[in-house]
Specification:
This is MFS transporter. By secondary structure, this protein is mainly α. It has 16 helices and no strands. Helices cover about 80% and strands about 0% of the residues. The chain starts with a helix and ends in an 8-residue tail after the last helix.
Length: about 375
Amino acid sequence: MLTPTARLLVLSQLLFNIGFFLVLPHLAGHLADDLGLAGWLVGLVLGVRTFSQQGLFALGGVLTDRFGAKPLIIIGCLVRSAGFAVLAVASALPTVLCGVVLVGFAAALFSPAAEASLAREVDPDARADTFAIRSMAGEVGTVLGPLLGVVLSASFSLTCVIGAVLFCLIAVLHLRFLPRRPGEHHDEGLFDGWREVFGNRAFLLFAAGYSAYLVSYNQLYLALPAELHRVAAPDQALGLLFALASALVVFGQLPTTALARRLLGRERALVAGFTVMALAFGVVALRPPGLVGATAFVVLLIFGQMLAAPFAMELVPLLAGDRRLGAHFGVLSSAGGVAVLVGSTASGALLGHGRVAWLLLGLLPLAGACVMAFTGKRRAFSS
């Protein structure tokens, strides 16, 4: 049973994703069609947004440890509102870049704070289940956000205004109901947290292995469309497969986590999850006919994610010794962001090499499984 604060933080993830995916799916089209930006500039804007989010998570984490989660979540929501407001009126590239930096930096503020706060709010044995519920709520928001955008049928500027208002309401919600707890390291140096995190070799090893999952998951946006193009799939196939992925998480995450905990335990569930993700790439390398390979890839990749991700989140506080959770969650996300940037560049170059590309991509989660198995022998994995 979740506490009221834990329920608020789960609800927050739902609302965060609704607001984000209400606006962001339309950004590229707005930049190209309405503002007339060249394709490389559109890519630059999207890349700046990703970097300003993932790259700055580590900063948001140490700020959480210093000042507490509540102010970081509230300020992050207000910063995202400001970012959407800037995008609503932006008509030139510098203003657009300012808007996307604010949108990305906002998540770097509130995401590590929300994750650290949720981890502290629940019993250690219930963390995997709680993060599974949070993942499910986030996936619902990922689906509802674009659907709401379609229902509204509004201009991009009006959609941005609606998103800005929503994040202001989320800030008010947290101002009213989220308990104020001082940062656990408020009397220490701001960047002492980074020194502690980067001195934690077990955590750094885990973060490297976890990054393999993030790079693999990102192939839904890169390798999957390439496979659909190869088999000459209809245009609507990609949307249907994304809908399938969302449905699997919404309806399958909680049963999968409960069953994995009972039958496998934390360590073996992590190893199994990464192994299943590796298998997803191997199936496509076999070149099954039609949409069989793409469908199997989505199902296996999402199933592997559902097995591994909640237990990975449960492990962060254990590896951190329940200290500086903001800094640890922040560095974990930033490491993943760097890995995705490098991994996406490499996988984009590989995808023209057919089966070899899929086999090489499958080695990454397989290496992640080995890291998890090795790290599992450490005392930090004990319950």
